[in-house]
């Protein structure tokens, strides 16, 4: 049990590796496209020049002038290729992936769960998980403090800037503005289509509704013609219903239309944005903190945990105001073998340290009882305060 | 992991290559154009030929640099494939948002307490402010004290710890803690190294309370000039200092009614270990349209290391069930234990 199961422990690390990979893919694509565009343009100019001079439509000095211009453009392209944001980002994601992979590789070299190295590694993992949680919950100040100040290492292990981008979109949506979100949709067009996301349609629909709410019916119709038309194939029903909205006042009590006017649609948009953004970047839909906590608390929870008499202060589930409360609705752990923990010493009872029962029925470990006897010359049950002789003890067989 | 690392090193190499070759190619293009410009100036008659040649060369170079970009993307795709092969499952099926619904505050408080326990007070306070939490100052003051004393021990200054242990002497003894003695012992050894004459006085003054343990320590006096080569050299081990720090932390926390390790740390560490098991179970249960987190008891055992078992569990060797209040363990006169229901069933057949 004290040997680490590396493959098992790595299960959790999917987003850790996938997130920078996804971003690397995106930037590589963007820079490829840009280069393609620039070179195609330059190519065209050269071909044109060659053609026109062949047909003697152009003077040599003009051709020379055009070439001069191209040199300028290429030089700026070269500067871009070195200094371009996309290139810098690309290099950053590569180095980030590298650091993360070597962090995981470090784990595979740790053998024992009891080793100091594993404790240190796990503490870093907990910090990573906490930063992820903070970022998702919007505690960005704490998150960046945790990511930067504590250990320099953690910074490459968390995706702060990814969340700050998302934050901007969310804040805009909170202000009832779709602009940032639409720009985001445009940036991620092909991937969103692959995911069959309905986010862009919902944004357009919302803008349409807001126009009607503001009483600008004419504009709304123009808007619908311009933007909603392309969604006809997939969302015809919704578009039809939305068009009917033109005939209803914002204060309407007619249910389907009242719903369309409802401001809570904006909150739905925000949560849809979050879900899509997480999926797009290979982030899990739930924070890793809750995933690991639920698994951990359930594995630790026993029927004794919630009973005040049997509380063990070292047991996380036994803290009634914090983790105990969180574990409330989780299943108990399953055990096919008995484990007896001595209440006197806190040690696990085994063959070398067998369980002994007192005449009153309570069971403690032999070692702890012996120690008590050597010290005080008698055995006093800590639960009932009854006093017994050592000869009264009886060995218990628990298989 | 090895395959992934291998594929990744290709990505890393290619990234540098592509960046360099792109710049290289653009430079070549510029050279070609400048070359062509010269030819136009020197030999305007054959401008058409020069431009035609330039077109040819330019196209080649453009194709080359786009090709290398494409290859880069291919290498990334291969790396992605190796990553996806390793991580196939969506781990969020192992988590149910309902379970923690409306408990954000509890969760945040747990996190803040974790920071305090770890002595990261600035971080804790920032979080408490940002998340609008309410945590009594006394907890922070207590842990502040603990980290101050601990810091002193780390610098091999034992006075603050000894003073604390003296104040808490009764409570420590009640818990069977030997911390106070161990602190005095360490101080005694310290004196034995530096100021031998004081060591004996110190021992006389402090050790009368701990008569049972001091024989070895007193004998060490005989070797005070060469302790490091004596049979008592174990007293000098630096591990004793680490042990002392851990013991102090544990006792300090326990006297506050808190665990010696951060409960959040324990839970998350156990969770990371338990996750593969829970994930497998959740996948199977999902197929049967069950939610694992809604069960009363997990269907399989999640193995835990010994030091993370905090409560006694009795699983009946006959029925294999865990005992409950209604079905408690019963001891037979021979000393074997089975649960009550099994006992009833067994005796029914034999009556």
From TrEMBL, chain A:
Q: Where in the cell is it found?
A: Cytoplasm
Where are the RING-Gid-type-classified zinc fingers?
A: 315-384
What keywords tag this UniProt record?
Cytoplasm, Metal-binding, Zinc, Zinc-finger
All residue ranges annotated as the RING-Gid-type domain in the record: 315-384
What are its GO biological-process terms?
proteasome-mediated ubiquitin-dependent protein catabolic process
Entries under CDD domains matching the protein: RING-Ubox_Emp (cd16659)
- Which parts of the sequence belong to the CTLH domain? 163-219
The record ties this protein, via Pfam families, to: CTLH
One GO molecular function term?
zinc ion binding
- UniProt similarity note: Belongs to the FYV10 family.
Its GO CC terms are:
cytoplasm; GID complex; nucleus
Instruction: Fetch the InterPro entries from UniProt.
Output: CRA_dom, CTLH/CRA, CTLH_C, Fyv10_fam, LisH, ZF_RING_GID
What domain of life does the native source organism fall in?
Eukaryota
* Protein's name in the database: 10186_t:CDS:1
TrEMBL record, chain B:
Q: What protein does this entry describe?
A: GID complex catalytic subunit 2
- Any idea where this protein resides? Cytoplasm
Q: Which residues form the CTLH domain?
A: 142-199
Could you say which residue ranges form the zinc fingers (RING-Gid-type)?
316-351
Q: Locate the coiled-coil region(s) and give their ranges.
A: 16-71
Q: Name one GO biological process term.
A: proteasome-mediated ubiquitin-dependent protein catabolic process
Q: Name one GO cellular component term.
A: GID complex
Q: Which domain of life is it from?
A: Eukaryota
Keyword annotations from UniProtKB, A to Z = Coiled coil, Cytoplasm, Metal-binding, Zinc, Zinc-finger
Source organism per UniProt: Funneliformis geosporum
One function term, GO molecular function aspect: ubiquitin protein ligase activity
Primary place of residence?
cytoplasm
Q: Which InterPro entries match?
A: CRA_dom (IPR013144), CTLH/CRA (IPR024964), CTLH_C (IPR006595), Fyv10_fam (IPR045098), Rmd5_dRing (IPR037683), ZF_RING_GID (IPR044063), Znf-RING_euk (IPR027370), Znf_RING/FYVE/PHD (IPR013083)
What the record says about family reads: Belongs to the RMD5/GID2 family.
- Tell me the ranges covered by the RING-Gid-type domain, including all copies: 316-351
PANTHER family named in the record: GH10162P (PTHR12170:SF3), MACROPHAGE ERYTHROBLAST ATTACHER-RELATED (PTHR12170)
């Amino acid at each position: 049990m004290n040997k680490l199961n590396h493959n098992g422990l790595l299960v959790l690390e999917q987003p850790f590796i996938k997130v920078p990979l996804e971003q690397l893919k995106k930037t590589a694509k963007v820079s490829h496209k840009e280069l393609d565009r620039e070179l195609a343009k330059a190519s065209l100019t050269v071909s044109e020049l060659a053609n026109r001079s062949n047909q003697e439509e152009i003077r040599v000095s003009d051709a020379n002038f055009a070439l001069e211009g191209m040199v300028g453009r290429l030089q700026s392209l070269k500067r871009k290729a070195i200094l371009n944001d996309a290139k810098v980002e690309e290099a950053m994601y590569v180095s980030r992936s590298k650091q993360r992979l070597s962090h995981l590789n470090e784990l595979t070299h740790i053998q024992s769960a009891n080793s100091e190295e594993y404790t240190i590694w796990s503490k870093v993992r907990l910090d990573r998980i906490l930063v992820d949680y903070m970022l998702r919950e919007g505690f960005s100040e704490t998150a960046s403090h945790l990511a930067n100040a504590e250990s320099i290492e953690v910074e490459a292990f968390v995706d702060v800037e990814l969340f700050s981008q998302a934050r901007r979109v969310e804040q805009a949506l909170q202000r009832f503005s779709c602009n940032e979100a639409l720009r985001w949709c445009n940036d991620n067009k092909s991937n969103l289509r692959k995911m069959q996301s309905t986010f862009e349609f919902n944004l357009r629909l919302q803008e349409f509704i807001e126009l009607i709410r503001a009483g600008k019916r004419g504009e709304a119709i123009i808007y619908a013609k311009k933007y909603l038309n392309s969604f006809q194939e997939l969302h015809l029903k919704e578009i039809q219903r939305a068009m009917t909205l033109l005939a209803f006042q914002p204060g309407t009590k007619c249910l389907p239309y009242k719903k369309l006017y409802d401001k809570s649609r904006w909150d739905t948009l925000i949560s849809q944005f979050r879900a899509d953004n997480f999926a797009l970047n290979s982030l899990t839909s739930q924070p890793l903190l809750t995933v690991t906590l639920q698994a951990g608390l359930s594995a630790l929870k026993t029927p004794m945990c919630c009973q005040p008499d049997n509380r063990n202060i070292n047991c996380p589930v036994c803290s009634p105001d914090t983790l105990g409360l969180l574990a409330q609705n989780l299943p108990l752990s399953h055990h096919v073998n008995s484990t007896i923990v001595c209440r006197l010493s806190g040690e696990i009872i085994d063959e070398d340290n067998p369980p002994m029962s007192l005449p009153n029925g309570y069971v403690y470990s032999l070692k702890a009882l012996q120690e008590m006897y050597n010290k005080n010359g008698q055995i006093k049950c800590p639960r009932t305060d009854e006093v017994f002789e050592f000869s009264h003890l009886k060995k218990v067989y628990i298989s | 992991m090895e395959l992934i690392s291998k594929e990744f090193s290709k990505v890393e190499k290619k990234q540098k290559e592509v960046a360099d070759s792109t710049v290289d190619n653009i430079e070549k293009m510029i050279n070609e154009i400048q070359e062509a410009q010269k030819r136009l100036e020197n030999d305007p008659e054959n401008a058409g030929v020069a431009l035609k040649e330039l077109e040819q060369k330019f196209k080649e170079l453009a194709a080359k640099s786009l090709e290398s970009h494409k290859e880069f993307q291919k290498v990334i795709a291969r790396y992605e494939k190796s990553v996806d092969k390793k991580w196939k499952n969506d781990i969020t099926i192992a988590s149910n948002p309902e379970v923690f619904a409306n408990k954000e505050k509890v969760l945040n408080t747990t996190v803040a307490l974790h920071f305090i326990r770890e002595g990261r007070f600035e971080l804790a306070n920032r979080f408490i402010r940002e998340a609008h939490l309410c945590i009594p100052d006394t907890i922070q003051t207590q842990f502040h004290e603990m980290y101050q004393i601990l810091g002193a021990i780390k610098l091999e200054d034992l006075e603050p710890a000894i003073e604390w242990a003296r104040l808490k002497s009764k409570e420590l003894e009640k818990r069977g803690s030997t911390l106070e003695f161990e602190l005095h012992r360490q101080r005694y050894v310290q004196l034995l190294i530096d100021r031998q004459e004081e060591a004996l006085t110190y021992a006389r003054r402090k050790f009368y309370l701990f008569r049972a343990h001091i024989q070895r320590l007193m004998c060490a006096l005989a070797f005070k000039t060469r302790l490091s080569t004596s049979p008592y050299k174990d007293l000098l081990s630096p591990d004793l200092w680490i042990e002392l720090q851990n013991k102090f932390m544990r006792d300090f926390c326990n006297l506050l009614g808190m665990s010696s390790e951060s409960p959040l740390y324990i839970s998350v560490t156990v969770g990371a270990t338990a996750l593969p098991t829970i994930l497998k179970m959740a996948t199977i249960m999902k197929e049967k349209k069950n939610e694992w987190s809604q069960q009363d008891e997990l269907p399989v055992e999640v193995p835990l290391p010994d030091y993370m078992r905090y409560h006694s569990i009795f699983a009946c060797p006959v029925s294999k069930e865990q005992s409950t209040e209604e079905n408690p363990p019963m001891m037979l006169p021979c000393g074997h234990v089975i649960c009550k229901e099994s006992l009833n069933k067994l005796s029914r057949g034999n009556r």
